[in-house]
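Hi R.,

Here are the chain sequences for the assembly we discussed:
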Amino acid sequence: MKVAVLRFPGTNCEFDTQYAFEKLGYATELVWHKETTLPSDINLVVIPGGFSYGDYLRSGSIARFSPIMRAVVNFANKGGKVLGICNGFQILTEVGLLPGALKRNSNLHFISKMQRIRVENNDNAFLNRCEKDEVLQIPIAHADGNYYIDPTGLSDLEENGQILVRYCDANGKSMDVNGSIGSIAGICNKEKNVFGLMPHPERALDKILGSDDGIKMLKGFDS
Amino acid sequence: MSQPIENIEEVLKAHKLSLEDYEHIKHILEGREPNLVEIGVFSAMWSEHCSYKSSKKYLSGFPTKAPWVIQGPGENAGVIDIGDGMAAVFKMESHNHPSFIEPFQGAATGVGGILRDVFTMGARPVANLNSLRFGDVNARSQIGKYQRRLVRGVVDGIGSYGNCMGVPTIGGEMSFDECYNGNILVNAFALGLAKSDEIFLGRAEGLGNPVIYVGSKTGRDGLGGAVMSSDSFTEESKSLRPTVQVGDPFTEKLLLEACLELFKTDHVVGIQDMGAAGLTSSSFEMAGRTGSGMIMNLDKVPAREEGMMPYEFMLSESQERMLICAKKGSEQAIIDIFEKWDLDAAVIGEVTDTGMMELFWHGERCAYIPVAPVSEEAPVLDRPTSRPKYLDEVAGVSVDDFEAVDNQSAFEKLIASVEVVDKSWVYNQYDSMVQINTVKAPGSLDASSIRVKENGKALAMSSDCNPRYCYIDPFKGAALAVIESGRNVAMSGAKPLAITDCLNFGNPENPEVMWQFAQACEGIKEACAELSTPVVSGNVSLYNETNGVSVFPTPSIAMVGLNDDENNILQSAFQKEGNKILLVGETRGEFGGSLYIKELYGKTVGTLADIDYTKELRLWELVIEANKQGLLCAAKDINMGGAAIALAKMAAVSNKGCKVNMGVANSRDVFAESQSRALLEVTPENAGKVAALASGLGLKIEAIGEVGGENVSINDIEITLDKLRDIYFCQFIRVIEQDL
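And here is the predicted structure of the full complex:
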């Protein structure tokens, strides 16, 4: 498997993401935001965390216009797999590949901590190595992670099995972390080839860092 | 040359220069009268902030050498060897005055400035710490309300900058005292990693080599900031807001990446960030370090707005800018790199061999100053010192002079102190995990630790200072700050290697403050020499005074240590029920400057016991060695609030109770702050081995209890884990957000 990792000027998780996939044995290639095409031999595009173009405006709202995003949209529309983590999730909603929007956290603060999330659906290319209802420990670090979608959109997500993970407590009970509707932490599109989540699986690959639950998430794409 | 100045006395006053300085300037200019640009240059370079004129006398003599020191003080940051061809680059700096005037931007640009100091050396920043002092945040008054607003603003500012930069903020410290009501202290520390043979210095040399300006455009923000920071505050200080710079972390991120890309090439001779006194200090310092001269065409400097004049270009403190001396012929290659990152880059001058700084404005020379005398002949003051009168008063009071309080009530008061409780409200606003190295994260107690992916080792770092100790005894208090930071580092299994310091004091024109400063410097010198932890970088912040009231002497110390194995980082909270708790060191009834007296009686009084460096070093050795042998589960130093508070923290963080019986002469001694002590958690099987190691080192060690249960029970104190955790984790937000 080969992974393209996008690099916007304000991206700051690109090296962590590369490190993570390479540690799991996959080839990676950084792709600069001014590029207009993706490498031809890739199986997955990852849009990592950070502050794309500073995100002084709504997070990801400028990035959606970048040259590389046009290529990513084409790739996704042809069925290519795309994963957006944190800022990547925000960009995917802004560019329209994923439904809904990410608002400022309800407490108006940046929130950085180890967080439990519960797997909602595993019948997809991402979470197929996780059990349904499994509780994972994955770090979060964001200011704009408050997921919102209108009631119709929400019931569509639920009916189609598009909700990937929800924030939860140690017992797996949903909990409010940042104001997200239904405690949603990550979703996919209806076709289940575009995935976005606020938590950072690439930060959970080593027990000494507090958790290695990210391994089975990222490895999911290799199956 | 521009016109001579007419109203010279007014101009001098506005630039905080004396008539004596003026005569000196004329002498340096060989009898010529300076023009306004030149006055501005001298004013900035001779400001307290840039020239260290009050402090220089005492800073000489700091221990700065050790086999592992690659670069000591005098550059943008200090550098130590951490093995396998890797080096740690670090420094701490203050942004006190700006943060009081405008907390968000003041604190944010403090972080930006210290990060530039580190990456200008060729290092990628990998960790931030901060050391924050605020006034009385508990007060119901307007002062309390303002202090709480400052806390919220400063934390927000630090987070916004560090988070965007992708540099984890992995720890820090915070304390609170009325003495900071008029002057908060915001000290930011950054550490970066570089290859030890790829360190870049702030030097301009080589006749004809180009001088290149890169980064943000220059605006009128921060004009005269260095001069502002060199004065005390009065009621009118709110009008100083335009002297505070505005930060743009996104641009700094671009600057960081562009510089790191540039450092992989062979184009750079030297580089320096434009911090305080902007283009003035960077150009003069870069030329001054090599004895070179420099020509700069100020009309070539990228400007944010039209109509700016040479004076403004030289004194602006616009953020996110660097000055580079490059190899001749590499101009375009450098410009290409910065253009890739959408940053300005302009060749604005060249290096000469005249030793003169020659500034031009559209071809006309607007300043002509010999470089060397500006720094070498900067005024060095020998300010009068006098032992403060309050010292005898506070020394005459002891804990016995107050009405006794039962231990349970005392414990409940101390554990709820904002100094003690968990600060997750603060550190959860900082991305502490980006770069995926953080092993001992904020809130884990004692030092913070990151792994070094490049060599499989780990760095531990801790920032400390107990201002109460420094108030009642500046010498010992400063020495104890070095000791505590070292002890915290040792508690994670790392060997303490070197410090950076940030010396925050009041008004140096007050002889009593100057005495405090001199004493604190001597204390740091003694401790650093005794502990073999040299000073590799640092910063002085004076004039932390408002309406005649100075802050407590606050020499913040950040210690950096090395652990040989990233997989052997020692934790400080309890690990497992059934484990034994050992107390190392001797508990005496020492309460000078203690949290106990402060919280129960509202006073900062008493004396400090003599420091036993041998005992301290042996304690470090015990923990480091026992950890290497795999004998320890956790180690926690004992400081503010004594053994009782240290145990309560270990329990609260781990969510594990404990039952402890400590032998003490007086029941309140569970709160005593005797130095050179630690709590160790060991398995029952290893308890004997650790005790034997300790005895071999001549350290007193005793088993005082066991981990486990639903309660924390320490002699006659008892509290349920639930209640303890509610106080420990929720008290801070209750205090800080009470006005929202």
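Residues 2-222 of chain A form a domain with the Rossmann fold fold (CATH 3.40.50.880). Chain A touches chain B at residues 9-10, 12-13, 15-16, 19-20, 49-51, 53-56, 109-113, 139, 141, 143, 200, 202-203, 205-206, 208-210 (CB under 8 Å).

Let me know if anything looks off.

Best,
T.
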